[in-house]
């Protein structure tokens, strides 16, 4: 059970604290079961006050852990795994790396081959428990996959994918947040030009985007099916949409996704 697992987050920065926040809100999860590390722990004081163990020593942090989450930058993964190796028991801890672009193969250059390891790619909506997290693993059995899914479900929604899609998941899910935010900014700018102040335009756009996403999720719909419902023949919506397409809207989005993917692949 995830609520009774001892979890250590090594390198508790932006993403690590989002995961910590999700876990601490999970029913039955005890703060004592969570250990967070950083070199400079002043930003983790509030967690310490809640009963979470906050440390600078990564080796001590993993010793009693069932699950070790690496929240450090990609270039820190290999050196930290090397440091941790003497304190890791391949039959005990499950290792999860959040690092972009670090393959399981690279991790196993350090880890004992019997270790159960995962990669997980959440996004910054983890902060409000609305992340989409894609996970893949090596050596995990069905129960361990279920456990790790439950962990990431505490910060949103989790899906298992093949490792070969992990970079694509980074683009669509993690970079994707920025694409949507840029789209929202453009819509707000349009709203200002047609008469709203920026605060009101932002409120309208935020709720419109939230409503559109919820509609797709709750009704399990494809966007085009809903678009057909709001495009009255000869009406203002289809005129606006077609003008956006003439200006290359869908093409720009697809090309942006591919450009990010090509960059990450390099
Ligand atoms: N942000 C995203 O949207 C996103 C999405 C998916 C995946 N990722 C991946 O998630 C990872 C973390 O991203 P982030 O945005 O959370 O980065 P971040 O805020 O920079 O967090 C990394 C943390 O690691 C700590 N750290 C560095 N060296 C350490 C060491 N030797 N021991 C312990 N802690 C150490 C740093 O704190 P100190 O300097 O105090 O030690 C820092 O707080 C990255 O690998 C990234 O690729 C990020």
Characterise the protein shown here:
The protein has 266 residues and is α/β, with parallel strands linked by helices. It has two domains: 2-161, NAD(P)-binding Rossmann-like Domain (Rossmann fold), CATH 3.40.50.720; 169-265, ProC C-terminal domain-like fold (Orthogonal Bundle), CATH 1.10.3730.10. The protein is built from eleven helices and eight strands. Strands 3-2-1-4-5-6-7-8 form an eight-stranded mixed sheet. Strand 7, helix 6 and strand 8 (156-160) form a beta-alpha-beta unit. Helix 7 packs across helix 8. The longest helix has 28 residues, at 166-193. The two termini are 39 Å apart. 31% of the residues are buried. The structure holds NADP nicotinamide-adenine-dinucleotide phosphate. The site of NADP nicotinamide-adenine-dinucleotide phosphate has 25 residues, from helix 1 and helix 4.
List keywords for this structure.
266 residues; alpha/beta; Rossmann fold; ProC C-terminal domain-like fold; 2 domains; eight-stranded mixed β-sheet; 8 strands; 52% helix; elongated; binds NADP nicotinamide-adenine-dinucleotide phosphate
Q: What is the rounded Rg?
A: 21 Å
**Helix-strand topology string:** EHEHEHEHEHEEHEHHHHH
Helix content: 40-55%
From the 3D coordinates, which CATH architecture of the largest domain would you assign? 3-Layer(aba) Sandwich
Low-pLDDT residue spans: none
CATH homologous superfamily annotation of the largest domain: NAD(P)-binding Rossmann-like Domain
Relative strand content? 5-15%
Strand order of the largest sheet: 3-2-1-4-5-6-7-8
CATH class of the largest domain: Alpha Beta
Write down the domain tally: 2
Strand count: 8
